[in-house]
Each structure stands twice: as structure tokens, then as C-alpha cells.
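Weekly structure sync, notes
Attendees: PL (lead), two postdocs, one rotation student
Agenda item 3: pending single-chain targets
PL asked that the sequence for the first pending target be pasted directly into the notes so everyone works from the same version. It is reproduced below exactly as submitted, 353 residues in total.
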Amino acid sequence: MTYAPGPYGYGYAPAPPPPKPGVIPLAPLDLNHVLSGAFGAYRRHWKTLFGMALASYALAAVVVVGLGIAAWATLGDQWEASPASQDPSLSDLAPFLVVLGALWLVVALGMLLATGLLHAAAAVVVQEAVLGRRVGFGTVWRRAWSRLGSVLGTIVLSALAALVPMLLFLVGLVLMLGAMIAGIAASEGNHVDDGTGLALTGLLVLLLALGTIPAVVWIWVKFSLAPTAAVIESAGPLTAMRRSAQLVRGDWWRIFGYTLVMVLIVGGISFAVQMTLRLATHLTVFAEPLTRHATPGTVFAAATTAIAVTGLLQLLAQVLLGPLQPLASGLLYVDQRIRRENLGPALAAQTAA
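Predicted structure, written out during the meeting:
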């Protein structure tokens, strides 16, 4: 008995490949698809993404530089008038420390705002890139800005989990520092505790902080798809986080692995770029070292220059590489919906319409 050509005979034809109207095939993705899709979306929309990143981080940088200039104009004359041969007192340094603290806070808030806007923009680009559509800067800006509040909400709520190990590390370091001071005082013959108890307590707190890191990573991965869900599904922060948890459930390790690979790639490229630029600018910016006779004004100028140069290098790295990680997260969101909700045919129908 013979069979006609078909699934049981020599004439069986392999299934056709899934449609690929954009940067990824409309089927479950492997690591290569996610990486090539993220870089492909970046390459096709680099002008839009570069413009969004530049606008986001440059706006934050302008605010920081403006505050730095205002602080120097207010306090510079006072510090320049301080005698160079006299060690500055705490009252002399207090304004300097307050200004640096304020600048650090503004930098943190500015980076948070820029990161949220960039995540929202990447989600908009992914939504169009998987369909093979191009989207302009104006459209991306409007859609990203309209969802910025929800995206920031997901980022802030997810980041709250990291506060626990950070606070534990801080408490542990303070206890260890107290133990060190007590040990020095005891070695000088003062009748005080040698700090052994503080040292042991600090060590236990630091170990506890290390023990919380796996939980923080678990929470971070669990909610890693929330910014994309907040944009594509027009969801609020809590709804987007629940949606992310639903999509990640059962695939945590795969999403963690894919995300870790992209983080390492982007981090390695960013480190190489920043180190190269730092080596190129170090001799020119810091050619004149500080001496023990430097005035508070000179110290402030050097510190401000260091902050400005470091911030500029980080800004450049973020502008160039910042979109890649959000793009990969967006593609993982699409991948999970294809796997769980059979989104592929619906996307293919949109491209055919």
C-alpha cells in the first residue's frame, strides 16, 4: 500500500515560517529573536529614539546645570573669600554640603523622569515596530508623554522593594563605622567598649541585606513588563503591575535570563564608552590637582566640574544606549502575549488590514 504525498509520505512540506512584518516573527521568541529585534528596532527608529533620549536626559541636565550655576553665583564669592591657609569649619562647609545634596536629589529626580519617558517611548516604538510601521518623533512624544504618569508609577512602586536592602546596608555600615571608632578609642586607653558587639551586629545586618537581594530581583523581574503594559494597554500603575505579574508567571527564569543578557550587553558597551571618554578628558579637566592650600571656592569648583563631567559622560551613554533595555522588555511583553494569548494572528491581521 502506498500513500499519496502528504503528511505521511515523501511529499510532506514543512510548515511555512511565521509571518514577520516587522522586527520579530509573530511567534514565540527565543533569545536571538529578542536581541536582534531590540537592536533592529533601535536601528530602524534610531532618530526617534535618539531624539527622545536626548530630549529627556538633556532637559534633566539643563535643570541640574542651572541649579549649579545659581548656587555658585550665590555662594561662590563667600567661599572664595575664605582664607586658604585656614581649615574650613563646619559652618563654612554646610552650604557646600547642602548644595551638593540638593544637586544629587535633583539629578535623581531628573533621571527618574527621563527614564520613565524613555520607557514609555520605547513601548510606543515596539508597538509599531513589530508591525513593520515607522513612527515619527512627534507621535512618539505625544503618546509617551500621555502615559508618563502611569509608567513612573510602575517604576517607583517596583523600586520601593530595593529600599529594604539599601536601608539595611546603610544601617550595617553605620554600625560597622561605630565599631571602628569604638575600637580606635579603646586602643588609645579610653575606658570604653571596644565595639565588638557593634561589629557583630553590623555584620549580621549586612548579611541580612545580602539575603534580601534575591527577593528584590524576583520582584524586579515580576514587574519588569509593567511599563510596557502601562503604555500599550493604557493601564494604571497597579493594573499594569498586576498584568506584568500575570504574564511573567511560570516564565520567570526565562525572562530573567533574557533580561540579564541584555543588561550585561548594554552595561558592557556603556562601561567601555564611558571609560574611553573619561580617559580622554581626565588630563585636560583635572590637570591642576588640589593642594592643602586650596580655598573652599576651589574645592567647590573642582567638585562641580567633576560632577558635570561625570554627568555629561553618563548622559551621553544613556542617550546612546538607554533605549535598548526598554526595547527588549517591550519585546518580551509581546512574546509573552503571543505565548499565552495567541496574539500572533491578531497582529498579522493588523498588518494585512
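Discussion points:
- The CA atoms of residues 165 and 213 lie 7 Å apart.
- The chain has a mean pLDDT of 81.
Action: rotation student to compare against the earlier draft before next sync.
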